[in-house]
């Protein structure tokens, strides 16, 4: 007796099941790859934002100045909020003026605000860095090797500032350590008089 040619129902069902498994595995691998690319893009974006903020902060901290007259804004560090006056440097600051810079955590990320000091046009620079969800700021006391998380209300500037930025529980780049170079205010026509 000869066997009829063709596939049995069992062979066809087995082929369909195996093909389905191969398709599911391929789809799963593609989805994992897509998710990994999306996370990588988000992490790269967060690192780029943190790097740009780091450069801006480093330039601003280098130009930090102590109060020159009674009533001038002082360097303050309280509850994670940092505020200081800096000599205008590169963008986004106009170099003809001093700027009061305030940075601290907010609802949508790290908030940055800079206001010109003196007789400057009322142009306020503000932006938010949503990728920085937390930051740790410490100031180095001028006469000792003690890092403080709160800076006392004084006219003395710290020797240095250390800042570590975080996105949730992931540290964004290396910590920034900026040495403060106390400078006398610029005596220009646009600066405070």
Structural commentary:
Helices cover 28% and strands 30% of the residues. It is an alpha+beta fold. It has a domain at 48-179. Strands 1, 2, 3, 4, 5 and 6 form a 6-stranded antiparallel β-sheet that branches.
**Beta-strand percentage range:** 25-35%
Helix content: 25-40%
Which structural class should the secondary elements be placed in?
Answer: alpha+beta
Q: Please state the oligomeric state of the protein chains shown.
A: single chain
Instruction: Give the CA-based shape.
Output: elongated
Indicate the radius of gyration in whole angstroms: 28 Å
Distance between the termini: 114 Å
If helices are DSSP runs of H or I spanning 4 or more residues, what is the number of helices? 1
Low-confidence stretches: 183-193
Order of helices and strands: HEEEEEEEEEEE
**Residue-averaged pLDDT:** 83
* Secondary structure tally: strands: 11
How many strands, what sense, and barrel or not for the largest sheet? 6 strands, antiparallel
Task: Offer a concise description of the structure.
By secondary structure, the protein is of the alpha+beta class. It has one helix and eleven strands, in the order H-E-E-E-E-E-E-E-E-E-E-E.
Task: Jot down its keywords.
193 residues; alpha+beta; six-stranded antiparallel sheet; five-stranded antiparallel sheet; 1 helix; 11 strands; 28% helix
């Amino acid at each position: 007796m000869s066997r009829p040619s063709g596939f049995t129902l069992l062979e066809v069902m087995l082929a369909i099941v195996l093909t389905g498994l191969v398709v599911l595995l391929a789809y799963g691998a593609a989805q994992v790859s897509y998710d990994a690319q999306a996370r990588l893009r988000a992490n790269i974006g967060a690192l780029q934002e943190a790097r740009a903020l780091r450069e801006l902060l480093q330039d601003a901290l280098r130009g930090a100045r102590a109060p020159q007259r009674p009533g001038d804004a002082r360097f303050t560090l309280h509850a994670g909020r940092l505020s200081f006056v800096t000599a205008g440097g590169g963008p986004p600051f106009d170099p003809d003026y001093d700027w009061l810079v305030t940075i601290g955590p907010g609802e949508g990320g790290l908030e940055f605000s800079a206001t010109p000091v003196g007789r400057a046009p009322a142009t306020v620079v503000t932006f938010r860095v949503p990728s920085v969800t937390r930051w740790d700021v410490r100031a180095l006391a001028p006469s000792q090797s003690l890092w403080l998380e709160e800076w006392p209300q004084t006219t003395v500037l710290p020797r240095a500032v250390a800042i570590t930025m975080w996105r949730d529980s992931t540290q964004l780049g290396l910590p920034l350590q900026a040495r403060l170079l106390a400078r006398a205010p610029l005596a220009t026509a646009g600066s405070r008089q």
